[in-house]
Amino acid sequence: MDPLVAAIDQGTSSTRFLVFNTKTAEIVCQHQVEINQSFPKEGWVEEDPQEIIQSVYECIERTCEKLAQLNVDVSSIKAVGVTNQRETTVVWDKETGVPLYSAIVWLDLRTQSTVENLINKAPGKDKNHLKHKTGLPISTYFSAVKLRWLLDNVDEVRQAVLSGRAMFGTVDSWIIWCLTGGSSGGVHCTDVTNASRTMLFNIHTMDWDSELCSYFDVPMEILPTIRSSSEIYGYLKSSSMAGVPISGCLGDQSAALVGQMCFEEGQAKNTYGTGCFMLKNTGTTPVISDHGLLTTVAYKLGRDVPACYALEGSVAIAGAVVRWLRDNLGIIKSSAEIETLAATAGTSYGCYFVPAFSGLYAPYWEPSARGIICGLTQFTNKSHLAFAALEAVCFQTREILDAMNQDSRVPLAQLQVDGGMTSNRLLMQLQADILGVTVVRPTMSETTALGAAMAAGAAEGVNVWNLRSSHLPKVTCEMYEPQINTDESEFRFARWKKAVQRSMKWETTEAH
């Protein structure tokens, strides 16, 4: 039996545990559990950290049962990697192991006034005041702002900090700490890719930055230790896999970049999940964007290996718009139905949907924007709306690609794509049409989990996965070529940009 490597993929809407063959990169077995999101107030998005960790245990146990049915010995699994929704913020008590508050999810907007206060104290009230160190604008998106809100608003968190019991982490840290023993000796660590999304991390020194911590007034002793994305952090304590090392850790978008094998400077991938995230590898030099993109750590595959950086365009709402059409409007019963519904119209008939449910992220960074649907006529029906929702995902991606091309001055010839929505063929064709470039989709779309498994298998002391380009498995792909004329797609894109302008400055922080 070839050695196997497993990955925990803890995303915004579900948790998965997948087992990969190290020679072929094929999935041997997997299990998935959906995660509940709660919206206690408008703009608030929370998840229960206990539910998150329970879902991880459940996925591990179910997958082990499935392996047994396949007559595969669990001891063939040589390592586990972790990949996670980034920026989502957890604070817990290190003595009891109990979370002190719900996990505040990355797209939560409660910190809008916190952000305004932080920007107001910046020289010239510049939201990019910390960008030279962090690569990020001051925004509701990043962890430091969520942590600041918790310290300001939750007594339990404040008390735990004062008594030296508080631990802060993004979801990767929470999972690794729990799996390696929790309050009995759990490892409190994070990797450089997750740390680079907190706004407390200096992307040049590759460490927590005391100046950034004092800007946000965050005590450094609650922060996890920073490690590379590929090394042994600790060993699983309980579960059917006790004793297996956890040796890979990457924020989900970095993991997808690795899983798509974008190891060359200039290669890019776009992941269509709850949100939409395009990353372009810029090599060992961080490129600071002039066009609203983020500079982030792509990966650091080993303790003594230099880090690689990426330019990133983040869109808050992609798959979430489909979930919204399903759960809030009820116009589809399952997410998969949107393709059929949109295809019956074949066009949005002049209807444009800007799903700015959590403000606009890249390239605008406009938290005051809200979702709008415009261009409606008496003729518009639900299939036009479904089509407009899919088109919105493609237009948002086009805005990011344009910004990337401007920043790097090397236009992208093709886009590698992955994530749940890429199984929607209509969406993929639309994307090629709207971008005017070839869209390449690997037939195995679980590239995020694959990236975490590759990092874990390649770690020193595990060494069952070779990341040298001559050893990388050949992946089969589907190609989508642009099929409409450029004038048509440019016209539609210009109308979309007009709709975006109308969604801006909708919300103010004054009392309603």
Automatic annotation (TrEMBL):
Molecular-function GO terms, alphabetical: ATP binding; glycerol kinase activity
Enzyme class: transferase
UniProt domain Carbohydrate kinase FGGY N-terminal: residue ranges: 5-259
Keyword Transferase included in the entry's annotation: yes
GO CC entries: mitochondrial outer membrane
Domain Carbohydrate kinase FGGY C-terminal per the UniProt entry, residue ranges: 269-459
GO BP terms in the entry: glycerol catabolic process; glycerol-3-phosphate biosynthetic process; triglyceride metabolic process
Localization in the cell: Cytoplasm; Mitochondrion outer membrane
Family to which this protein belongs: Belongs to the FGGY kinase family.
Full protein name: glycerol kinase
Organism ancestry: Eukaryota, Metazoa, Chordata, Craniata, Vertebrata
